[in-house]
Design brief:
five-stranded antiparallel beta sheet; 8 helices
C-alpha cells in the first residue's frame, strides 16, 4: 500500500479541534519525517478529519442476526471502522466453546472487531473474570436486573480476579424503570471495592475517549496517533458544526469517506466492504495510556 501524508488545519482528535500533520504507511499512522521527500500529499481541504468510530452493537446486535452484513453496513455508514459485538452467555459450562465459536463466525467481517461477553451479574465470578482477562476481551458486560444481585456478588473476589489483566466490568440495565437506582448502587460498590469499570456508560453512541482508553482499545484504535491503525473519516466542512464538538455531534456526523487501515471502505454512497478484510483486534493494557 502506497504511503501518503495528510496535512490539515481541521482535525477532531480526542474531542479537540487541532491541526494535523501525519503520514500513513502500511496501514499505520507514522511521522511525516520518516517518509521519503517525494511521498505524495493527500489534499483534504474540503473536508475535516476524525478517527474511525468504534461502536458496541447495542442498537443492532450482530449475534445470531440473519442479516449480519446489512446490519454491519449501517455502522459503516456512520463511520465505524471497528465494532465491539456482544456475546450473550447464559451458561458457564458453554462459555469457552461459545467464545471460540463466535470468533470463528466473525472471520468474514468487513471491518475490524472485538468481542465482549455479556453475562448476567449473578453468573460472573472470579473464574469468568480471569478467563476473559486472558482472552484480552475489552470488557465484561454485566446485566444488572435487581438490587439483590448487586448485594450478593462477591466483589472482593472479582476485584482480585481483575488482577494484572485490568479487564473492566461494565453494567447494562435492561429495565429503564430501575436503572437510576441500580446505577447509583453500582457506582458506590465500584468505589468501595476498587472494581475497575468504564468511566462512561455504554450506549448507542460511539465509545467515548475515556472508555476507549480505559478499555485498552486506544491509542491503537479509535484515535489518530503515531503507530496506531490509520482508521479515519473525512467529513464535508460545515462551519456551523465545528463550534462545539461533543459525543452526540460525533455520532450524528456522517462521513463522506471512511478509511480502515489506510484502505477506503466507503466513499459517499459506494461501499467497498470486502468480506474478510476485518481483523479480530486485541486490546493493549487497559489504562496503560492516558489520553491527552
Amino acid at each position: 500500500m502506497e504511503a501518503y501524508c495528510i496535512n490539515t488545519t481541521n482535525s477532531l482528535v480526542r474531542n479537540q479541534w487541532k491541526p494535523l500533520q501525519l503520514a500513513v504507511r502500511d496501514g499505520k499512522w507514522c511521522e511525516t519525517s520518516t517518509l521519503e521527500h517525494q511521498t505524495k500529499n493527500l489534499v483534504i481541504d474540503p473536508f475535516w478529519i476524525g478517527p474511525g468510530k468504534i461502536y458496541i452493537d447495542l442498537e443492532f446486535p450482530l449475534y445470531d442476526a440473519p442479516y449480519r452484513t446489512a446490519l454491519l453496513r449501517r455502522y459503516i455508514y456512520r463511520g465505524c471502522t471497528m465494532i465491539i459485538t456482544q456475546l450473550p452467555i447464559r451458561s458457564k459450562k458453554q462459555m469457552k466453546v461459545m467464545w471460540e465459536q463466535y470468533k470463528q463466525d466473525l472471520e468474514l467481517m468487513a471491518i475490524d472487531y472485538m468481542v465482549a461477553p455479556r453475562i448476567s451479574l449473578h453468573r460472573i465470578d472470579s473464574e469468568v473474570v480471569r478467563y476473559f482477562g486472558r482472552q484480552k476481551a475489552p470488557f465484561i458486560i454485566a446485566e444488572v436486573t435487581d438490587e439483590n444481585s448487586l448485594n450478593i456478588t462477591k466483589w472482593e473476589w472479582l476485584g482480585q480476579a481483575q488482577g494484572s489483566s485490568f479487564i473492566p466490568i461494565v453494567p447494562v440495565f435492561p429495565n429503564p424503570a430501575t436503572e437510576k437506582n441500580l446505577k447509583k448502587t453500582w457506582d458506590q460498590i465500584m468505589t468501595a471495592y476498587s472494581i475497575r469499570t468504564l468511566p462512561d456508560p455504554l450506549n448507542e453512541l460511539p465509545l467515548s475517549v475515556g472508555n476507549l482508553y480505559a478499555a485498552g482499545i486506544s491509542p491503537f484504535k479509535g484515535d489518530i496517533r503515531t503507530l496506531g491503525d490509520a482508521d479515519y473519516n473525512l467529513y464535508i466542512n460545515d462551519e456551523r458544526q465545528i463550534e462545539a464538538p461533543d459525543q452526540m455531534f460525533y455520532h450524528r456526523a456522517i462521513p463522506y469517506v471512511t478509511v480502515l487501515r489506510g484502505k477506503v471502505i466507503r466513499a459517499h454512497v459506494e461501499m467497498n466492504d470486502e468480506k474478510g478484510y476485518g481483523r479480530l483486534t486485541d486490546i493493549s493494557i487497559p489504562n496503560h495510556f492516558t489520553h491527552r
